[in-house]
TrEMBL record:
Keyword hit for Nucleus: yes
Domain Exonuclease positions: 287-447
Family: Belongs to the REXO1/REXO3 family.
UniProt key word tRNA processing: no
Organism: Polypedilum vanderplanki
GO cellular component, one term: nucleus
InterPro entries in UniProt: REX1-like_exo, REXO1/3/4-like, Ribonucl_H, RNaseH-like_sf, RNaseH_sf
Main location: nucleus
Single GO MF descriptor: nucleic acid binding
PANTHER family per the UniProt record, alphabetical: RNA EXONUCLEASE 5, RNA EXONUCLEASE REXO1 / RECO3 FAMILY MEMBER-RELATED
Classification lineage: Eukaryota, Metazoa, Ecdysozoa, Arthropoda, Hexapoda
Cited Pfam families: RNase_T
Entry protein name: Exonuclease domain-containing protein
């Protein structure tokens, strides 16, 4: 009797749990519609008798639903993701880099096999369970447009828990789709391409447009002067282009280099200036300059610039000066800086004068070389796009966070002693040492002096019998790999939806077999934004990766199908409710466990965008 009572109790409990899950799912679908009378909502009659067969079915259904919940993909922000949200004080905010979103999209599409991970700013759990990736790019909207009209984005805020500020590539109308599809290579993925194709050039040789191959800098670079692909001309005694050693914008941010982006960085680097008003594209022939600074302690309890040394790649000193700190010196730090009170007595040169002189001295494509060069540039309050950091390109520990001292690197690789003078360091000596280390690595290979990369090189040798690093693509530190190529390789169906105003060269966004003309991507071109949204809704369930693009400047029309000028902030505010509806319409058709990403793509050279991410549960 008691056994039967316990069984009946289990039956009722199981039925109640299943019913509760169903009610919760209905509530989510209807967004907990408060207009629906409570009496009309599904309720379980606990007096009903449940047969043994019904109990088995309920147990099976409960197990399936629990399994589905446990295996559902999940997205959450990490520290740097939280720092990028629009809720963060603008002076403390750290916007996401464009690569951050690209890495998320690649992971959502390829799951655990993705060569790129968005681990810096978010966690994407069980990415293999994502049903499809839907991206809606709205060009013409900025982060300012969202914050200024936040109260009108009612549906959008109901969908997305977070809105994150996003640093966009240098604005070029209707090129954002190509930018999204081309992801900068990580070192590990370079190695896999090298293993597969023999060299990066072999893997990427069909990509002829440098604008799609190399990552856009945060700095003003005159890319028009480099419109044609250049043949690699290596310098004497160099086995690969020096551009492969450059830090990427994301690396620069992680390593603490001053960079010109808004938010916390804008406040942190207030008073800084760029070394040039405009730069030339960096090449394998761009000159290298060793840079090192020495500091003194001032009354503000800070180290301030006291000496600057610049050496050309022939180890000739081309700039050497002492600098008078803005504040009174309280400690000359002589054992380290080599600076004495007597040396500084008659020094009058200011930091501002040094900045101007260095700016006039350096060519527009100069590569600065140094050990933890971020410290020197911060001391000089200068920003520069092209840097090689010997503390990054050499690594003896296998841990990127543990950096070897320049003195140790010089002794280990050059068999030279530096920094042994009891009167302190010589900034010229340190500059020359950094250049020598860089030249040594260029004479070997990309793996030389890096324990972690050497280990990977050994693995590749064991697998393939040889390793090929030959005839690399120019600026290959910033070579990109197309999302669509990865999708096609894994038999993922991709589609682009846009208006006719969006011209995309799909062949440039692919890694195809030589001679192949099939890029494997559908591109639907519609006559209006409404039709783009409609087409996206119709086809998204049939594709693994959907990239839809609209431009409110080019594509917005009124009820009479007449083009509307949306260049003013007032007009943008007026059409925000329609944009809000478009976002909701696409979201309503996203499949369960699908990931939806909305990107506000900016409108000019100085604007940041917004990124929003949500998984459909």
């Amino acid at each position: 009797m008691r056994k039967q009572e316990r069984l009946e109790k289990k039956k009722r409990k199981t039925a109640a749990l299943v019913n509760m899950i169903k009610i919760n799912e209905i509530d989510k679908i209807h967004e907990k519609n408060s207009e629906e009378p409570e009496a009309k909502k599904s309720k379980l009659n606990l007096d009903i008798q449940i047969s043994d067969d019904q109990y088995k079915l309920l147990k099976k259904e409960l197990a399936e639903r629990r399994n589905a919940l446990q295996n559902a993909p999940k997205f959450r922000l990490k520290f740097f993701g939280e720092k990028a949200t629009l809720l963060t004080n603008p002076t403390k905010r750290q916007p996401l880099m464009f690569e951050d979103i690209q890495y998320l999209l690649m992971t959502s599409l390829l799951g655990s096999s993705s060569p790129f991970k968005p681990d810096r700013w978010c966690v994407l759990e069980k990415a293999n369970r994502i049903t499809h990736t839907v991206v809606l790019v709205i060009e013409g909207l900025t982060s300012y447009n969202f914050t200024a009209n936040e109260s009108q984005f009612i549906r959008t805020k109901g969908i997305f828990e977070h809105q994150l500020e996003l640093v966009l590539p240098k604005y070029k109308k209707n090129r954002l789709v190509e930018e999204i599809s081309n992801v900068p290579l990580t070192q590990s993925h370079k190695e896999s391409l090298i293993k597969q194709y023999g060299s990066l050039e072999a893997a990427l040789k069909l990509n002829k447009d440098p604008n799609t191959m190399f990552s856009k800098s945060l700095f003003p670079i005159d890319i028009d002067t480099d419109s044609e692909e250049q043949k690699i001309e290596l310098n004497e005694n160099e086995t690969f282009p020096r551009t492969r050693l450059l830090l990427s914008p994301l690396q620069m941010m992680i390593e603490g280099y001053p960079i010109p982006i808004k938010g916390e960085y804008e406040e942190r680097y207030r008073g800084y200036r760029s070394t040039k008003s405009i730069y030339k594209p960096v090449t394998s022939k761009s000159p290298m300059f060793g840079l090192d600074c020495e500091m003194c302690r001032t009354i503000k309890s800070e180290n301030e610039l006291a000496r600057v040394s610049i050496v050309d790649e022939n180890f000739k000193s081309i700039y050497e000066t002492l600098v008078r700190p803005e504040n009174k010196i309280v400690n000359y730090l002589t054992p380290w800086s080599g600076i004495t009170k007597e040396m500084m007595e008659n020094v009058t040169k200011t930091l501002k004068e040094v900045q101007e002189e260095v700016s006039n001295l350096l060519p527009a494509d100069a590569i600065l070389v140094g050990q933890s060069l971020n410290c020197d540039l911060n001391a000089m309050k200068l920003m520069h796009p092209y840097v090689i950091d010997t503390s990054v390109i050499y690594n003896l520990s296998g841990d990127r966070n543990r950096k070897s001292k320049l003195q140790h690197l010089t002794k280990h690789f050059l068999n030279e002693e530096i920094q042994i003078d009891k009167l302190g360091h010589s900034s010229i000596e340190d500059s020359i040492a950094c250049l020598k280390l860089t030249k040594l690595k260029l004479s070997k290979d990309i793996y030389f002096g890096d324990v972690a990369l050497e280990a990977k090189k050994s693995i590749l040798k064991n697998e393939e019998g040889k390793i090929g690093i030959v005839k690399d693509i120019e600026s290959s530190s910033n070579v990109k790999t197309p999302i669509f190529s990865h999708a096609l390789k894994r038999q993922k169906k991709s589609v682009i939806v846009s208006t006719h105003n969006c011209e995309i060269n799909l062949k440039k966004s692919m890694l195809m077999s030589e001679g192949s003309e099939d890029h494997g991507i559908k591109h639907f071109k519609e006559n209006s934004i409404k039709k783009v949204v409609k087409k996206t809704k119709e086809i998204l369930l049939d594709h693994d990766f959907i990239l839809s693009h609209i431009n409110i400047f080019n594509d917005f029309v009124d009820e009479e199908n007449e083009k509307v000028d949306c260049s003013s902030e007032e007009k943008i505010a007026e059409i925000v409710p329609k944009i809000d509806k478009w976002i909701e319409k696409v979201w309503s058709n996203v499949a369960t466990n699908g990931i939806f990403v909305v990107i506000f793509g900016g409108r000019d050279l100085n604007s940041n965008g917004v990124s929003m991410v949500q998984i459909k549960s």
